[in-house]
Give the backbone structure.
Amino acid sequence: MLLVVAVAIAVLLPVIGSFMYRMSNISTNTHLVKVLAIRGSLETRIREWVAQPASYISCDGINNQINCAINTLVFDRFTKKTISVPGAACIGTQICGFTLTNLSLSTLPASPNLFFNGTLQYNGTEVKGVDIILAIPIPNEILQPKKYTCPAATPIFSGFGPYGNVICNPIPMATCPPGAFVAAVDPITLNLKCSPLPTSAGNCGPTEFISSINYIGNPGFGAPNMPVVCTGRLNPFTLGW
């Protein structure tokens, strides 16, 4: 009889051990799914606040880049307290869960956007590797700078790019060729429109010379009105020298 009981126990122990191991794995995996679900919900909420104008202060625009500071009061709900995860285990009596840390703004050379950076850190000890690093592009149109500044090398403000970035252009150094004048300046490209000077406005008689020119201009950007004053030539032998 004792032999039968011993055999039965020997058979059942591996089965029970395997069952308990599987139940433990199921419990761990279920908890991991819960942790990841809470992390995903928190990331979604953070992204919603990243896209709000109230999340940024002291914004200004310099050339093709907008510069701002994070309004940390908006993110206190994620940085000043731990978002608890039920069933989590951590060291001591602290609340177990997620906290948003390492907030900053950064830029990338190939992008006109600012990026919101942060880390969702998990202090639980029962699962590992669930921290997530955030690098979220901020739409420039929500930053609403109070001023835009173009640098000295490109001082002309020419509007905004497709991403809301400031466009600054240099002062054009082009000139009109000899015999032409600046009739207009294209407001977008700043290219000059040149028109020829009139050739008949400065004619004087064979015994006269042009003593002065009165440039009047033309409101319609056509050929300017340039009446000349003709004065008779003097005989050098009658000047009383």
Summary: The longest helix spans residues 2-50.
